[in-house]
Amino acid sequence: MLPHLETSTRKETMSLNPIDFLQKVDIKGGLARVNKFSVQITPPTALHAAGADVISFLCKAAEFPGKGWSTVEDRIYGIEVLKPYAAVYEPITLTFYNTNDFAVKKFWETWLNYIQPQGTRNMRYYDKMVGEIRLYHYNETAESAVVGKENYFCGLNEAWPLSLQETEINWDNDELYEFQVQIQYKDWSRRAGAGQHLSSYDYGRDSGGGRQGRERDF
After folding, report:
1. Could you count the other beta carbons within 10 Å of the beta carbon of residue 107?
2. d(Cα 131, Cα 39) in Å, to the nearest integer?
3. E-only strand ranges, the chain
């Protein structure tokens, strides 16, 4: 005798009407766009790198981080099953406009040199070389980047520059000077608060240390 199988009588339907689609999207605030964002960069305290707010302001493009898993194969009755055992956080890329005084590029060169000073070649202790980077996304109707009014927040915990991209200069190109920096980090948080990372920050608001980023107009 075959076992009794319970079946659901509820039918899942999906409307193919574009009006229904738009109505459902409107309930969620509409479709998000990628061009309304801001970045806050906080270097290591001992680095004494000035102008981090200006550097953040000149970030042309950024990436929200992803998350994956390192896996191991486990054979069960002849079938190989992948099982996760450790989280993997890939580096993100930040793209910056450079200025004529090269302050933006020098900022990252200074941080990289701080990790391993060229004079001594001694690597800095990890907890002394890392900083914090925060990414904010705003609604398409936002006219300026006001921390606390964002749609989404992502904080990179224990962030540090992994590499600085080489850049080409030539006589035939009069485009704006841009370059990229790869950022490595320990992990990331969607919110900073009680029991979370990102030092004493609470959802992007400064705790009194004067490290709040400047407001950015779109």
Report:
1. 23
2. 13
3. 37-42, 59-61, 68-76, 79-88, 92-97, 131-137, 144-145, 152-164, 178-184, 187-189, 216-217
Show the domains of the chain with their CATH numbers.
Answer: 36-204 (2.30.110)
Count of C-beta atoms within a 10 Å radius of residue 207: 12
Complete DSSP assignment for 65-79 = ---EEEEEEEEETTE
Structure tokens at 90: 């890939």
- CA distance linking residue 24 with residue 192, whole number of Å: 30
Residue 94, Cβ density class (10 Å: 0-12 exposed, 13-18 middle, ≥19 buried): buried
- pLDDT class for 14, splitting at 50, 70, 90? low
Q: Report in angstroms the alpha-carbon separations of 166 from 102, 139, 179.
A: 14, 34, 7
**Residues near 140 by beta carbon (within 8 Å), at least 6 away in sequence:** 30, 32, 33, 35, 36
Query: Nearest to residue 145, comparing CAs of 83, 75, 84, 62?
Result: 62
Instruction: Specify the residue for token string 């302001």.
Output: 57
Instruction: Judge contact between 137 and 150, C-beta under 8 A.
Output: yes
Give the pLDDT confidence of 77-114 residue by residue, as tens digits: 888 999 999 999 999 999 999 999 999 999 999 999 99
SS3 content of the chain, % helix, strand, coil (to 5): 15, 30, 50
Q: What is the token pair recorded at 40? A: 């806050």
